[in-house]
Every structure is written in structure tokens, then in C-alpha cells.
Amino acid sequence: MSASPAIAEHSSLEYLEDSFGLLLRGGIRALFPYYLGSLPFVLVLLYFTAEMSSGAFAASHIAEGALLVSLAFGWMKAWQAVFARRLLTLLGEPQDRLTPRETLRLAILQYAVHATGLFLLPAALLIALPFGWAYAFYQGFTVNAGAAPLKTQLRRAARESLVAPKANHAAISVFALAAFLLFANLCILTVYLPTLVRMFTGVDTLMNQNWASLLNTTVLLLIGFATYLLLDPFVKAFYVLRSFRARSQSTGRDLLVRLHRARRAVPAGVVLIALLLGLRISAATAAEAAPREERIDHSISEVLTRPEFAWRAPREAVKDEESQSWFVRSARWFIGQVEELAEKWKEEIEALIAWLMDRK
Q1: What is the per-residue DSSP string for 80-125?
Q2: Three-class SS of residue 206?
């Protein structure tokens, strides 16, 4: 299956820039469901890891701890799907309100499918070649979460994973580099944090004497989770935008959204008022210029009727069809052309909107 040409035109840089703008437009309200689902999972997994690595009763609590981590993972994936649906709504693709039963079904399907990613994604990364498509598939399944049958969601995610492969792999490389740099910077900040505290507060701690102890397994895991929480919403926004543009190739949803925004930004009443104001100004200008032109024409006629110019006059005076000046005639011709052009544009826009509504 090949990507559509219109999708392939968008570069990874355009996708990343638009994804960042989408997150900024959504703000805290759009990010709330993401962190509502992700923060509990991170805290539960951090506690489970610390308990299993150094807890005295780790062996007796491993079963319930693993179950708790599993449930937190399903909770996170369900809320990430809600986050993706909210971003799609911001892009102009309305989402149907889910019933409690459909919401429970969404959470179960997200948990079941993404659980396979814990094994398939590392295997794909080990092979290296199919990792980009596999990663896009799981992200696309989050974006396509809803009341549709599981087979439909899987088919959509698989189809969208093949869209714009160059932009997809380039973006994954950018995300990997950004994750490495963010992780390294957070590690440096953790090491120098006690020194900064001492510089600004004068408080000396044991961590200043043994800074290497800061980078233990628990702290590194905590930094890794912080890196994930800071970067993953941006990743989700990228694949939401990618999925939306892929769907728009068959639905024309992006064009409808642009028309709606243009209509909302410039109401028809404002356009009509501006047009009438322009016509009024043109008429007033023509009215002011007409007396001056008439005086000039009258002066020229007086000069031409003098005896010294009589031999140049024709035998019969030809009367003008209109008494208006050339400026008024030119203005009327220009206004007529503008009206004809506006009528043609109106017909074309109405035909385009009718075609898009039929496609919808």
C-alpha cells in the first residue's frame, strides 16, 4: 500500500511544527486526560520497581504488585486514547460521545492491543527495519480508538502506519534524539541540583559530598519516566495530526475545517459591509471628480468654438451617447467587472462546498 501523494508532500519538520502548535492550542485542558492516565502508571511502576529491587517482602507482594502495574497500564492507555480524541476534536474532526459500555470496551481494547506492543516493539527494534511501521501502528491504534469494531480500528491503524514513511522515520529519529538529550540534561540537573541549592540557600547536604550516589537505579528510572511524560504528548500529537491528514484524503475534512474557520473569521456580513462601503467611496469619489471634469470639457469646447479653430471643426457635431466623464464610465466598467468576477467566485465556492458535502 503506497502513501497518497498529498500526504507525502508534508515534511517531518512541518508535521513537528504543526504538532507543537496543536499542543499549544489545546493547552492544559487537552493535556489533563493524558497526565490523569499517565501519572498513576508512572508512580505505580516506580513503586513496584523500588519494592522489587530492595523491599524485604518483595517475594510475597510480587503477584499483587504486578497486577496493580497491569491495571495502571490499561488505565494509562485508555486515557491516552481520550487525549488523542480531544486533539482530533481540536483539529475539527468531531468525536461521538461514548456510552459507559463503549468507554469500558475502549479501555479493554486499548489494554489488550498495547500489551502486545511490550513484546513486539522490542523485537521490531532488534530487527530495526520494521520498527517505524510497528511504532506508527500502535500510535495509530490509540488515535483510532472509539466505538468502531476492533477489526475496523486495526485496519485503520495498519493503513495509516504506511502513510508518509519518510516523515514517520525522520520524526522517530528526532524523538529519539530529543529523548536522549532531555534525559542527559535531566541527569546533569540532578547532579548539580545540590550544588545549586547550596549556592542560593547556603544549605550543605550529604549529597554534595557524594554526588555519584544521586544517579542510582531509582533516580535514573525516575528521570526516564520524567522524560517520557514530557516528550510523549508531543509524540501523540504528531500521530494525531498524521492520522487526521491521512483521513482527509478521502473525506476532505481538512478543507471543510478551513472553510469553516475562514467563514467564522470573516463573517459574510463584514464582507458585505466592506463591499458596500467600497462602492460608496467609489461613487463619492466619482461624484466629486465629475464637476471638475465637466468644467475642463466646457473650457475645451469654448476654445474649440473660437474662429481661429473653426476650420478644424467637422461639418456635423457628433453627440456623445453619455454625458458622464471618462472617470465615471471607467469606474462603472470596473465595478461591473468586479461584480461578474464575484458572481463567478460565488458559483465556484458553492459548487466546491456542495461537492465536499456529497463526499462527506
Answers
A1: HHHHHHHHHHHHT---PPPPHHHHHHHHHHHHHHHHHHHHHHHHHH
A2: helix
* Range 52-89 burial, b when 16+ CB lie within 10 A, else e: eeeeeeeeeeeeebeebeeebbbbbbbbbbbbbbbbbe
Report the predicted TM-score, pTM, of the whole model to 2 decimal places.
0.66
Whole-angstrom distance, CA of residue 188 vs CA of residue 215: 10
- Render each residue's pLDDT in the chain as its tens digit; 360 residues: 444 434 444 667 788 888 888 888 888 988 999 999 999 999 999 988 888 887 777 777 888 888 999 999 999 999 999 999 999 988 888 787 888 898 899 999 999 999 999 899 999 888 877 899 999 999 999 998 887 888 999 999 999 888 888 888 888 999 999 999 999 999 888 888 777 777 777 666 666 666 666 777 888 889 999 999 999 999 999 999 988 888 877 666 656 555 555 555 555 555 556 555 555 555 555 555 556 566 666 666 666 666 555 555 555 444 444 455 666 676 677 777 777 877 777 777 777 777 766 765
Residue 145, classed as helix, strand or coil, is coil
C-alpha closest to that of 91 among 262, 242, 266, 265: 242
Which residues are CB-neighbours of 233 under 8 A, at least 6 positions away?
A: 23, 31, 34, 83
Grid cell for residue 124: 521490531
Alpha-helical (H) ranges within 4-57 are 5-8, 12-54
Instruction: Say which DSSP state 319 is in.
Output: P
